[in-house]
Amino acid sequence: MPRKLPPLTALPAFEAAARHLSFTKAAEELFVTHGAISRAIKNLEQQLDVTLFDRGTRSVRLTAIGEPYARAVREALDHLAVATAVATTRRSDTTLTVSTSGGFAGKWLVPRLYRFHRAHSEIDVRVSTTGTLTNFSGDGIDIAIRYGGGDYSGLTSEFLAGEDVSPVCSPRLMAGKHPLRTAEDLKYHTLIRDGYPIDWAAWLESAGVTGLDPNGGLTFDSYTFAIEAAVQGEGVALGRTMLVEGDLAAGRLVRPFEHALKAQSSFYLVYPPDAIRQRKVKAFRDWLFSEMGEDG
After folding, report:
1. 74-100 exposure pattern, b = at least 16 Cβ within 10 A, e = fewer
2. Which domains, from first to last, does the chain contain?
3. What would the pLDDT profile of 250-265 be if each residue is shown by its tens digit?
4. In the chain, what are the helix, strand and coil shares in percent, each to the nearest 5?
5. pTM score over 0.70
6. Cα gap 249→235, rounded to integer Å
């Protein structure tokens, strides 16, 4: 049975006018005249036999019918735009785009990428740390490293590593007037926070430490910046196993206490099931697991 569709060429004009509530702004966005927008919408209304806009002297507003129709048209156009991008985008066989968090990229991935490039010099790697959860459809992402529960519908998800969380600091804080010997000594030092789910309140409670303000100190949006502040001796941060191992190994950071909290989330390698057939994706996947194995 054939679909009953509206005049498709009128839909972009209607969607833009509905979004701006202005025929003039819609015309500017679409690089057409005000009259072209007006005629397109009038034609659409005649074809549907409904009124989509209440027209005032200097303004327009959507009618009770126009408002839900505008939402439906916008969603349909968005889906069509994504499908068009997927259909027309030719992904390079030699460029691999990896999506991950800024913290994982800065503290674990980037310091090791030279080894991947050395083994696969023909593959150019692009690292995306936008914070937006990729859908692998039209966004150009080939493979992602995600932090969560591992259940990602329709995608292949491979466990990489879990992590523990415990305080870390510069070796300089282990000496001086108030050396860090027990958790209670934290009251003499600045607490560094970064918005991670396991925060100082959770760690202090698990360690049985009371009388400290877990919300004071320094706060960063970036985990990388928070750890760098700890390296510089600005205070004590909560170190995540995978993301501080390099600084610990190099002696830039130390763990003053043994007590650690086990994180509920873990790192996973995520990609569309068919993506593993691509040489660049499989090469990166195998290299990543090899690095994880060397790190123990």
Report:
1. beebeeeeeeeeeeeeeeeeeebbbbb
2. 8-88 (1.10.10.10), 95-159+265-295 (3.40.190.10), 164-262 (3.40.190.10)
3. 999 999 999 999 988 8
4. 45, 20, 35
5. no
6. 19
